[in-house]
Structure formats: C-alpha cells, structure tokens
# Entry
Amino acid sequence: MVESTEVNSAAPGVAALSICESLLLALGDLKLMGENEVVGVVVDAASAHRNVGGSSRARALNIEVVAILDRIVAGGNSIRRP
# Structure
C-alpha cells in the first residue's frame, strides 16, 4: 500500500515529467524538433544524472532518474516514431 506522504512527494515529479513529455511531443508534432533532437534532449537529461556523487540517497535518486529517462528513450514515450 502506498502511503499518502509518498504520493504527495512523488506527485510534483510525475506532473513535471508529464508536462515535459507533452512539450517534447508538441515540438515534434509542430516540426520544431526532429526525432533525433527530441531523443537528444532526453539523453542529455539522463547524462546530467549519471555518476552524480553525494549521499547514498542522492546517488540512488539519480540512478532511478537515469533508469526512467533511459526507458523513455527505449520505449519512445516522448517520441512519436513512425
């Protein structure tokens, strides 16, 4: 069972990810960015979180962030592919 404090702390991140995914899709749909550029944005975001130091909690968080971003690239969540 998910605790309400976990939901409350996760909600802003999920909302932000949803907005970013929608923006990337819109930029692609409007032909302002191509597939390579959209993928590049997500890859760059993942790169910013790879090998980040800090506390074990900070490292664990960054590992999870990279995993999510890598799944987006692999699965095409933010990328409309023909």
